[in-house]
Amino acid sequence: MDNNQYQQKDKYQKLVEKRAPKPNYWKNGIWAFGIGGAICVIGQCIHNKIELIMNLSHLDATNATILIMILIGALLTGLGFYDLIGKKAGAGSIIPITGFANSIVAPAMEFKREGYVFGVAARMFILAGPVLVYGITSSVIVGIIYYFYNS
Amino acid sequence: MANNKIGIQTIKLTNPPSIIAANAIVGPKEGKGPLAKNFDIVLEDDLYGEASWEKAESKMAIETVKSAVLKAKVYLEDIDYFVAGDLLNQLMASSFAARELQIPYFGLFGACSTMTEALSLAAMMVDGGYADYVVAATSSHFSAAERQFRFPLELGNQRPLTAQWTVTGAGAAVLTKNSGGPNITHITTGKVIDYGITDAYNMGAAMAPAAVDTIKAHLRDTGFTSESYDLIITGDLGIIGMDIAKEMLVKEGINVKNNFSDCGVEIFNHFEQDTHAGGSGCGCSAVVFCGYLYRLLKEKKIRKLLLVSTGALLSPTSLHQGESIPSIAHAVTIESNL
Question: Which molecular-function annotation in GO is an example for this chain (chain B) (predicted)?
Fold first, then answer.
């Protein structure tokens, strides 16, 4: 590619950037904060109730809460509401554990037509897979560092 | 040099074929858009009674071809060739439609530019005396395209403002030797153009230079001016791509202030229907042409039309390998009477 074409491409990129509409970061941020916060408040309420009623330790109550939040996320995805929430909330509903549940249930539903083996099971982790791989890998690395640091 | 070729990229048809019938089927969302009343069938359910989105798309292609052939007052057996394409892997919708229709079939892939690619080749077949009747058809389906190119439908993500909405719809046109307007008179075949856009959520911007290149080549080869057209309409550049294309054309000294539009801009009410930058997909220019523009040509409200379907020739593989988006645009001139 000659120099002229590079310049042309560069100029074009700038033109496109100028013409592309900018998202309203403030509005999106407020929505993400509001809905993301609301999900966390719901989680905290459930946690408090479990701790109180079932008389569990703090850590056990946390695990139970996670299970319930995943159930809620999966259920709302299945009923077709989570994508509507996500459209408004963006990262606010992706980051909590309910978003993780959504990222597993959504492809499982979408690819059910390709069967339970090559559809549901094989495609279930197309979005969550990378999160698991890097999440687990980094926790192992941090664990090793922690082990040597303490010994 | 070939007899019918003029300039570098253009063909002037000696016996301009007639488009004797056209038919368009759209999904429910398109049926709520500004062009709704122009479509022959508006589906109530975008699954169309089928088990999958892909089969629904194929059924739309089948039904639109059958209706177009019926309108042309011929039988399916009279059709010599079925030239068709879509966006799905290995042309699932078109090939499955061809399996049902049992017409000799050429499958085309030109991404969203396939409608004018099909019209070009169909016109050449008829003009060359290789066929009496040819059907050109394309289809696309929002949900089928989303699951192939982007994310599952129920995923709670946000679509960027530059993203476009794949049209659910199928259009078919029946071509035969000259028997009154509208006729296809000129064909300009595009080159693959790539200005280095890598954002698959801004395909209008990726395709705009291809549209500009083809329009420029068409005017250069034919000697027409942009003013000689009642309407120059691109396939699916969307709001952003159309703006960029207009700006680039004006810079080239081509006046397109009053007679330039885009099928992807026309098909939806973008703000109310939340389609962001506009419609896209093989079905976009197909249904806008076969439904809306064909009627205007028939009623002689448009006398000379340049239809420039635009295609982004990307694949999920090329995107993940970090390649930019190659684009193409094919133009056909359609005149309401000769």
Answer: acyltransferase activity
Under 8 Å between Cβ of B304 and B336: yes
Q: Which amino acid is at B260?
A: F
How does residue A7 score in pLDDT terms, banded at 50, 70 and 90?
A: confident
Give the ipTM.
0.89
Q: Which residues of A touch B243 (CB under 8 A)?
A: 19
Give me the phi and psi of B31, to 5 degrees please: -70, -10
Which of B155, B213, B242 would you mutate first to test chain A, the one with the most A CBs within 10 A?
B155
Proportion of chain B in helix, strand, coil states, percent, rounded to 5: 40, 25, 40
In chain A, which residue's Cα lies nearest the Cα of B197? A13
Whether B156 has its CB under 8 Å from any CB of chain A: the answer is yes
Write the pLDDT tens digit of every residue in B234-277: 999 999 999 999 999 999 999 998 899 999 999 999 989 999 99
Domains of chain B: 5-176 (3.40.47.40), 183-335 (3.40.47.40)
As beta bridge partners, residue B84 has B107, B137
Count the neighbouring beta carbons within 10 Å of the beta carbon of residue B176: 21
